[in-house]
Design brief:
Blueprint lengths: L1 E6 L2 E10 L2 E6 L2 E11 L2 E6 L2 E7 L9 E5 L2 E8 L1 H4 L13 E4 L4 E6 L6 E2 L4 E7 L2 E6 L4 E6 L6 E2 L4 E5 L1
Antiparallel strand pairs: 1-2, 1-8, 2-3, 3-4, 4-5, 5-6, 6-7, 7-8, 9-16, 10-12, 10-15, 11-14, 12-13, 14-16
């Protein structure tokens, strides 16, 4: 997964790959190999070169909002941007008409479906929860609308880019 992280006025290019408990990360060309676990929600343990780091990440209220991250005595505000999601979007009004597709960004397992076919949803409302890399991600509606179709079931395994829900 390729991301861009904004910390203050500085942008960093990040590429992350997870294999089991191991995370392979490249940040601005520097490579890291860490063992990662999530003992409780919003708390991550990273083991690197025989040192363990406890990281607390505050949950986001809105998509696109910066994360508050604390590692020891250091606190950072980090905004993550997925360049794939920016491609081809001209603005928030683009989805005002037509069908919006809720897709997965990475392989995972559908943990919960939060809506039913025919239900009315508001922009930013949770639609599906997918677990990927031991983290649960709530996929939200990009617009106000009606759930046209649900293409998956709870417990299903999904691949990156799979369409899960259509909202009209």
């Amino acid at each position: 997964m390729k991301l861009q992280a904004e910390i203050g006025d500085t942008k960093h290019q990040i590429e992350i790959k997870r294999v089991g408990e191991m995370v392979f990360a490249e940040i601005d060309g520097r490579k890291y190999e860490v063992e990662a676990s999530q003992p409780e929600p919003n708390v991550y343990l990273l083991k690197h070169e025989n040192k363990v780091y406890e990281i607390f990440v505050s949950p986001n209220e809105k998509a696109g909002e910066a994360y508050q991250v604390r590692a020891g005595t250091h606190e950072l505000e980090i905004k993550l941007i997925d360049p794939k999601r920016l491609r081809g979007t001209s603005g928030s009004d683009e989805l005002a008409d037509g069908v919006a597709e809720i897709k997965t960004a990475m392989p995972g397992k559908v943990v919960r479906i939060l809506v039913e076919k025919g239900a009315e949803v508001k922009k930013g409302e949770g639609v599906v929860v997918v677990e990927a890399m031991k983290m649960q991600n709530e996929l939200k509606s990009p617009k106000d609308g009606i759930v046209k179709d649900i293409k998956i079931e709870e417990g299903a395994t999904v691949s990156a880019g799979d369409i899960l829900v259509w909202i009209e």
